[in-house]
Amino acid sequence: MTEEIKKKEKVPRQKMPEQEPKVRARNFDEVPLGYSPETAQLEAGRCLQCKKPACVEGCPVQIDIPGFVKLIKEGDFSGSILKLWEKTSLPAVCGRVCPQESQCEALCIVGKKEEPVAIGRLERFAADWQRTKGEFQLPKKEAPTGKKVAVVGSGPSGLTVAGDLILKGHDVTLFEAFHKTGGVLIYGIPEFRMPKAIVQAEVDILEKLGVKVVCNAVIGRTLTIDELFADGFDAVYVGVGAGLPVFMNIPGENLIGIYSANEYLTRSNLMKAYRFPEYDTPIVLGRNVVVLGAGNVAMDSARTALRLGAESVKIVYRRSRDEMPARAEEIHHAEEEGVEMHLLTNPTRFIGDDQGRVVAMECIKMELGEPDASGRRRPIPIPGSEFTMETDLAVISIGAGANPLITATTPGLQTNKRGYILADQKTGKTFKRGVWAGGDIVTGSATVILAMGAGRLAANSIHEYLTIGW
Fold it and tell me: Which helix (H) or strand (E) holds 4?
């Protein structure tokens, strides 16, 4: 081991300051408070500046990680954000919600002997510093091409495509069904994990670059894909996500007080139900809340319920902790705040009162058998282990499906048996000429950074099509 590596090992991974659990569990302010410039530089100094950085290979959008980290170490924070912008249009977002622990940080060489460099936290620092204190320089745009691109959906995938193509000189219009841009970043991820002002700041940059934004435009209803072509668009990218709720199909699921996670979080996040009476958005305020599922969306729902005043919140999941799909950090934060984990437990029916409101949930205990098609061990009911759990609010967070609105109104756009659009994984090309697709509408529910990676590949392919041909 070289002297340089020995020296760097003396600096431990820098912790991110956070709100205290008991305090944050009752407010919607962001939980992590961010690095100071001094802490960021100290953490950046842990990077070994590898000649062949494995961390870059773990990043779906291929950010020059050693490059932006080195600039932070040197105190050139504005240079750092410009380096990030070469590959990502959403650094403040990615720094907060990307699963770095299983991507870039998982391949960090420092992590072989100690904790890996906190790449995500440094990305967040650079973006936050530039937004609040720096003098931002817009990236340079190439000369106008005269080509028009319609981007349908303003989530991470659509924003990436819009950002990439506007810089390549194309005319880009972003169509969003809701009244706010951001897609899942706005309606799905709570304020305490992703402040909406930060998402808006990222969108503002795209608008300054020249991206046109059209909200309240439900493509497939107000306009079809073919009508976009008739209106003069040369290419269309579909990045509408997977927002169709999935339910369990068990007795009592239609009782009052049972939400899909999609509706529950949309009411709170996009429609600001948590700021009643300033925003008069109705939402059931449960005292004993159960959330079914164990992904990041389930954790978001459970932590939202706490902040809306619930006395107890339980995560109910039919597998064990090892199979929980949520990020370890999200599970840790939820437990710190008081969310209870009821594992190897499966709901079998909901019980209502004479007014049609849910009052309890019948469950059965499970044990794990052999792995199923997902690679996880199959949960098997234990006979005679039935019990009842009191609840006045249940949030079902077991996944989401593909909304058929666009595919049903677009001849030539092919889907798989689950309704997701069929598109080439390397280019995003669909079976319909001039149409690309990416993100959750192709893969099913996945991560922000994977959706952005799909957007990057599609943007490159669209640019090639507009300049060379199909």
Answer: helix 3-9
Burial (Cβ within 10 Å: 0-12, 13-18, ≥19) of residue 203:
buried
d(CA 391, CA 438): 38
C-beta neighbour count of 205 within 10 angstroms: 18
Do strands 148-152 and 387-390 pair parallel, antiparallel, or not at all (unpaired)?
A: unpaired
Q: Which residue is listed with tokens 């948590």?
A: 274
Say if residues 391 and 360 touch (Cβ distance below 8 Å). yes
β-strands 393-396, 171-175 pairing: unpaired
Neighbour tally for 170: CB within 10 Å: 25
**Phi, psi for residue 149 in degrees, rounded to 5:** -125, 130
Q: Terminal CA-to-CA distance of the chain, rounded, Å? A: 52
Q: How many CB atoms lie within 10 A of CB 325?
A: 17
What domains does the chain contain, in order, with CATH numbers?
Answer: 3-132 (1.10.1060.10), 148-243+401-467 (3.50.50.60), 247-398 (3.50.50.60)
- Residue 8 is predicted with a pLDDT of 47
Q: Can the peptide bond before residue 277 be classed as cis, meaning omega within 30 degrees of 0?
A: yes
> CA-to-CA distance for 126 and 256, rounded, in angstroms?
45
State the Rg of the chain over Cα: 23
Cα 363 to Cα 349: distance, rounded to the nearest angstrom:
7
Residue 454's φ and ψ, nearest 5 degrees, are -65, -40
Query: In terms of Cα–Cα distance, which of 327, 302, 43 is closest to 192?
Result: 302
Cα separation, 33 vs 169, in Å, equals 37
Distances (CA, A) of 233 to 174, 297, 466: 12, 35, 11
Pairing mode, strands 377-381 and 288-292: unpaired
Average pLDDT, consecutive stretches of 10 residues, N- to C-terminus, the chain (470 residues): 52 94 94 96 96 93 95 95 88 90 93 94 95 79 96 95 95 96 93 93 91 96 96 97 92 96 93 83 93 96 96 97 92 96 98 97 96 86 97 95 93 94 96 96 90 94 90
The one-letter amino acid code at 8 reads K
Structural tokens at position 401:
């499906």
Locate tokens 């990307």: which residue? 98
Q: How far apart are CA 257 and CA 370, in angstroms?
A: 35
pLDDT at 1: 43
CA 432 centroid distance within chain: 28
